[in-house]
Amino acid sequence: MEQQWLSVGKVVNTHGIRGELKVISQTDFIEERFAIGNELSLLNPDLSQKLQVVVQSSRVHKEMIIVKFKGFDNINDVEKYKGWSLKVTKDNLIDLDEGEYYHHQIIGCRVVTEDGEELGVISEILVPGANDVWVVEKPKGKQILIPVIDDVLLNVDVSNKLVTVRLLEGLI
Predict the structure, then answer these.
(1) pLDDT, tens digit, 9 for 90 and up, residues 13-36
(2) CA distances, 85 to each of 27, 41, 44 (Å)
(3) Please, which residues have CB within 8 angstroms of residue 78's CB and are 6 or more apart in sequence?
(4) What is the pLDDT of residues 73-114, one digit of tens each?
(5) For the whole model, what pTM was predicted?
(6) Which of 6, 30, 34, 77 pairs as cysteine with 58 (C-beta 3.0–4.6 A)?
(7) Residue closest to 20 by CA, chosen among 56, 51, 48, 49
(8) Do residues 17 and 74 touch, judged by C-beta distance below 8 A?
């Protein structure tokens, strides 16, 4: 069975000359994922190459994470990894509190109203600021943007891939 990967970051550039990389975070668990000694997988964009790396040091700097991996001590060692993704396997999921979900659990869920009207399927999750927004693809017509707030979100059943919402006036 093919390994399923979860993104935790994307390498966008080098930082300095001592083998550090600038990474855009794609995880809510920066402290855990980029902790010293943590193992990550570097995957190139077309998934034809994979490399296991171990975090030697990391820090947040200007909305990016500066990461240094063990065994990579100068810019020449890391330059080729620009554009690569940092991932973990689904086996490395961190337990969430009740009412919290991973994006991969939400994408693909059917969305119905409290009256049972089928709206479509969640295709994307936007993170614009105050709250997430779930993009629902309707069978026909425009997408519906569902704000993830208590007034709208009534029930999330990830095991049955079903989300129940209350449509507020003006939402669609």
Answers:
(1) 999 999 999 999 888 778 888 999
(2) 12, 8, 6
(3) 14, 19, 20, 21, 69, 72
(4) 999 999 999 999 998 887 777 777 777 787 778 889 999 999
(5) 0.65
(6) 34
(7) 56
(8) yes
